[in-house]
């Protein structure tokens, strides 16, 4: 009789939030060195004939795969935001789990139907953005939620509220974009500078988006954001083709959020 013992383990990671403490993302986890006998996720490679010739092994292997599963969780949750009437606003959500969960957005508990004004962009990494292209005072007190579900346990849900203030009632110190990004073209391998200058009191923190997705500044050392001189400007060293896209900067402090206009960066090969 063959005894097969499967030992599994899990690692925990603290939930993260965007905007309140950092102006960039720090999600990168160190990956273990590759194992010649494993595929992505540390799962041993199994030849097809082993499944067909050894049913006991096949059943144990399937149990091992199931043991690797863990429930969905939200490692980035949408932040409640205050914006000025006729502005745009973005909410961010990132889900984790095994299998990787799907992210579903809702506005006031309903599925998204106003696709002319609200757009969603999601990546295979579990990161997703919901964008209101133009808000009005009628959107005040809107509740935005993202949920993650991978079928392992109950779905997890996070909510954020949207506050819209009239332009004639903007408080002193509310974030402002003084210099918006502009169209840029840079040669591959050179350094690209994308303009953005922000102001606010308390001092506004800056987040950059490329094609609606937040840039993970801490994961890619080629990216940096200026904090003096021209606070908010983005520098991209050794520009690559994948850096090409539509860039926006977001200024945020305790009073609210302001989005810049968007501008394209082109990288010439």
UniProtKB/TrEMBL annotation:
Region (Disordered): 12-43
Any one of the GO CC terms: cell-cell junction
SMART domains: IG, IGc2
Positions of the Ig-like domain: 71-163, 175-264
Keyword Plastid: no
Protein name: Ig-like domain-containing protein
Membrane is among the record's keywords: yes
Membrane-topology annotation of the record: Single-pass type I membrane protein
Cellular localization per UniProt: Membrane
Chief site of localization: membrane
Pfam families reported for this sequence: I-set
GO molecular function: cell adhesion molecule binding
Keyword tags: Disulfide bond, Glycoprotein, Immunoglobulin domain, Membrane, Repeat
PANTHER family, sorted: IRREGULAR CHIASM C-ROUGHEST PROTEIN-RELATED (PTHR11640:SF31), NEPHRIN (PTHR11640)
Biased segments, Acidic residues type: 20-38
Single biological process term from Gene Ontology: cell-cell adhesion
Organism the protein comes from: Caenorhabditis nigoni
InterPro entries: Cell_adhesion_signaling, Ig-like_dom, Ig-like_dom_sf, Ig-like_fold, Ig_I-set, Ig_sub, Ig_sub2
């Amino acid at each position: 009789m063959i005894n097969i013992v499967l030992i599994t383990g899990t690692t925990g990671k603290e939930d993260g939030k965007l905007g309140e403490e950092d102006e960039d993302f720090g999600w990168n986890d160190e990956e273990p060195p590759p194992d010649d006998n494993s595929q992505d996720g540390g799962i041993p490679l199994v030849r097809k004939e082993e499944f067909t010739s050894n049913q006991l092994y096949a059943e144990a292997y399937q149990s091992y795969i199931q043991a690797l599963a863990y429930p969905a969780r939200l490692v980035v949750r949408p932040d409640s935001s205050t914006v000025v009437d006729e502005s745009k606003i973005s909410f961010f959500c990132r889900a984790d789990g095994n299998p990787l969960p799907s992210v579903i957005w809702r506005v006031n508990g309903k599925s998204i139907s106003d696709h002319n004004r609200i757009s969603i962009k999601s990546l295979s990494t579990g990161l997703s953005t919901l964008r209101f292209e133009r808000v009005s005072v009628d959107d005040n007190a809107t509740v935005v939620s993202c949920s993650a579900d991978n079928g392992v346990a109950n779905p997890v849900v996070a909510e954020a509220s949207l506050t819209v203030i009239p332009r004639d009632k903007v408080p002193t110190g509310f974030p402002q974009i003084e210099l918006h990004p502009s169209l840029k073209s840079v040669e591959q391998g050179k350094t690209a500078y994308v303009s953005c200058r922000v102001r606010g009191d308390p001092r506004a923190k800056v987040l950059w988006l490329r094609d609606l997705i937040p840039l993970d500044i801490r994961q890619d050392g080629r990216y940096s954001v200026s904090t003096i001189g021209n606070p908010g400007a983005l520098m991209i060293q050794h520009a690559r083709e994948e850096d090409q896209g539509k860039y926006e900067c977001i200024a945020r402090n305790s009073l609210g959020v302001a989005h810049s206009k968007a501008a394209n960066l082109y990288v010439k090969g």
